[in-house]
Amino acid sequence: MVTEAPEQVAAAVRAGDVRVAARLMRELDDQRPGAVEVMRLLYPESGRAFVLGVTGNPGAGKSTLVDALIERYRKQDRRVGVVAVDPTSPFSGGALLGDRIRMTRHYLDKGVFIRSMATRGSHGGLARATKDVIKLLDAFGRDYVLVETVGVGQTELDVMGTTDTVIVTVVPEAGDGVQVMKAGLMEIADIFVVNKADRDGAQRMLTELTLMLELKYSRGPGEAPSSQWKIPVLATQAVNNIGLTELFQALEAHHRFLRDTGELEGRRKARRREELLARVEYEVRRRLTLKARTDPALARLLDEVSGGKVDPHTASAEILSGEFLKNGA
Question: Between 190 and 107, whose confidence is greater?
Fold first, then answer.
């Protein structure tokens, strides 16, 4: 546990103390109250790093792409933070945290900080503490923070509300463009990458994605040209360092687009608002769960709902208007 005063811990993070930052990340993951106090102090230092999300199907080469991006940014002498999220086993509760294995060549680089996290049952492709860890890496002086999600297909939506730019990575084996649409990835992508493009079916995937995006941007007669970002579809072979220059250029172009149009700040404002609502929702649930163990009236109400004697609408109105949320745990 962090035993120092929150002010001391925050000062150590600002000074670049790797051990303190790593320990604070662990405590954020464990939801320690002291860590939250430190993050309140570090909050004014956040909002400077550019945050990139890399998502897509398992086995699409996300870690290899992240590794390549780290190398490119380091050549520009940019400081990089990485958050790699792995799924937690529903049986053992453990996680392999194997994404870091593919990035071992950067571990001795002081300009790179890699943090692996387990989802711990959280849905949406990210761990619950991911947003706090991103803010911490930001306050720690990282210029870019790369977030690699679990890669669980249709639940991979949290990354859109967490990062500035989303790279959706697919492979020819993923099927066709319709499968990508079914997964909801058309709505969250800022850049599409067809990785492992030397495999059969890659050209078909590229063509179908391009055509679908053209239909998305097509406008009727007399309508003004759209000023929105045109999502590029890129072919890469990350393991062979092919197509990465084009990907890097697309990332830089999207960063400029967000900054020049004001959309970057718009996205960040929306993220902060949604984070607030999500934290309130989580805290209300947590307090009610704890209070039900000691409050007979709340426990009785929950039993009546579970037994079908009281409908959820009536019960929720009683909870929100009554004393249950006051003096919570």
Answer: 190
What are 304-311's contacts with CB under 8 Å, separation 24+? none
Closest CA to 197 of 170, 175, 179: 170
Q: What is the DSSP letter of 102?
A: G
What span, in angstroms and rounded, lies between the C-alpha atoms of 297 and 310?
A: 14
Position of tokens 């890699």?
A: 114
d(CA 133, CA 311): 39
Q: Which residues touch 5 (CB under 8 Å, ≥6 apart)?
A: none
- Contact present, 234 and 243 (Cβ < 8 Å): yes
Phi-psi region of 10 (alpha: psi -120 to 50; beta: other; left: phi over 0): alpha
Tell me which amino acid residue 231 is: I
Nearest alpha carbon to residue 141 among 12, 8, 34, 9: 12
pLDDT of 96 > 50? The answer is no
Q: Which two tokens stand for residue 144?
A: 């870019």
182: tokens are 């079914």
Asked if residue 174 lies in contact with residue 80, where contact means CB atoms within 8 angstroms, the answer is no
State the Cα–Cα distance between residues 34 and 9, nearest whole angstrom: 10
Q: What angle do CA 43, 87, 66 make, to 5 degrees?
A: 65
Task: Look at residues 16, 55, 9, 50 and name the one whose alpha carbon lies nearest to residue 32.
Answer: 9
Choice among 124-138, 226-240, 306-320 with the minimum mean pLDDT: 124-138
Task: Give which of 176, 156, 173, 169 is closest to 238, Cα–Cα.
Answer: 169
The Cα 329–Cα 315 span in angstroms is: 20
User: What are the Cα distances from residue 226, in Å, to 219, 220, 229?
Assistant: 8, 11, 8
In Å, how far are 136, 154, 205 from 184, measured between CA atoms?
30, 6, 16
